[in-house]
Amino acid sequence: MLKPKGFATKVIHTPFAREDANRALQQPIYSNAAFDFESAEQMELAFQGRLPVHSYSRISNPTVENFELRIKEITGALNVTALSSGMAAVSNTILLLASSGSNLIASKYLFGNTYIFFESTIRDFGIEVRFCDLTNMEEVKANIDSQTIGIFVETITNPQLEVADLAALAETAHNGHIPLIADSTLTPPNTFCAKSFGVDLEIISSTKCISGGGTSVGGLIIDYGTFDWSKSKKLAPLSKKYGPFAFNYKLRREIFRNLGACLSPFAAYLQSLGLETLQMRFEKAANNCRDLATYLLTIPQIKCVNYPGIKGSPYDQISAKQFGNFPGAMLTIDFDSRESAFDFMNNLQLIRRATNVYDNKTLILHPASTIYCDFDQQKRESLQVYDTMLRLSLGIEDLEDLKDDIAQAITKLK
Ligand SMILES: *Cc1c(COP(=O)(O)O)cnc(C)c1O
Predict the structure, then answer these.
(1) Can you tell me which atom of ligand 1 is nearest the CA of 154?
(2) Which atom of ligand 1 lies closest to the CA of 87?
């Protein structure tokens, strides 16, 4: 069969793991819990992992597997695991690599729930997160020691929109014998090739762009098989037997299975459908973002427009290198007061007030009073979350309609 090279073709034509009895063109939804075996011997082999079949849907499922295979096809990964949410992908990865006494290096600029997971949840289990400036390699290097389990970075941080140099981070991580873990949710796989920048483990919240318009919650752990696990204290014994599959073995046969955060087959079906149109949708949203950023710069009531693709952004060059023409579909804007920011938000008629990102609809939110409401103002400002700032996630609507909505909301400002 002709081997497709293009992203869109690959994603649409990934073969099923097993031929469908009815020759369905779309992988059907297997919403059952358990699978039948012909014999006790077959069952024994399956449980030993020596027979590639399904036994129980918390462990693996044909609809979920099809979604994982498509991600594997487009990323060139060695192993892909789909989970119930992006947070499940983050927590499974860290709990797999860390033990009490371990530390992890990360920026403090993180998705809000990841930040609290790092700062509080895992600290209670004796895992320290060393918050560093990931754009400063000297600082990163100085924080790596024999207990460090990895560097964790978001490809575009939210809502600060900081972009670190991933190849430099990968080099620093690998010199320190630790993996680079990247949450690339804001730069989907059609626009960002994690493997070519040295990322060893990639995490994606498939709730966002992949789901096809905020249809369902899900997450992915993408393992490129590039890290030598004999360098990891915890995985070295497994690495003797399983080599580059050591991480996946520990994940599938222990952590993922026992924490139980599996993706539902129904969500996997929606996300597989979403994946088929990811490229078209994301390019539209990212183009909308770039064009809207230019428009917003012309509005005097808007004091500042922050977006990595805008001229003059400290990250425009590194973004272009890493994400090509599509440096995300999210931007932030600043007003002169919190009151004007709220007023503007309330005046919008088309753009929705909601907390998701990369929906098909353009969404707006005031991070300080929502995602960061548990923090005091000083803490928020240390995270660059200002009371005057709004975050916009671009959808795939017609740009002119978005501009019209913004223009009327500005005109009505008190
Ligand atoms: C949304 C998000 C997550 C968490 O994903 P869920 O699917 O909501 O659990 C993690 N990282 C980033 C960058 C996100 O945007």
Answers:
(1) 13
(2) 9
CATH of domain 7-30+61-275: 3.40.640.10
CB 363 within 8 A of CB 395: yes
Q: What per-residue confidence (pLDDT) applies to 312?
A: 86
Q: Return the structure tokens found at 208.
A: 């966002």
For residue 205, the CA-to-ligand 1 centroid distance in Å is 5
State which ligand 1 atom lies nearest to the alpha carbon of 88.
Answer: 9
pLDDT < 70: residue spans in the chain: none
CATH 3.40.640.10 occupies which residues in the chain? Answer: 7-30+61-275
pTM surpassing 0.70? yes
Question: CATH 3.90.1150.10 occupies which residues in the chain?
Answer: 278-411
**CATH number for the domain whose boundaries are 278-411:** 3.90.1150.10
Q: Would the CB of 395 count as within 6 Å of ligand 1?
A: no
CA–CA distance, 229 with 298 (Å, rounded to integer): 52
* Ligand 1 and 226: CB distance under 6 A: no
Pick the atom of ligand 1 nearest to 110's CA.
Answer: 13
For the chain, the 3-state helix, strand and coil shares in percent, each to the nearest 5, are 40, 15, 45
Find the 1 Cα to ligand 1 centroid distance in Å: 37
Ligand 1 centre to CA of 254 (Å) is 23
- The predicted pLDDT at position 83 comes to 98
Answer whether 187 contacts ligand 1 (Cβ < 6 A): no
Residue 205 confidence (pLDDT): 98
Residue 265 near ligand 1, beta carbon < 6 Å: no
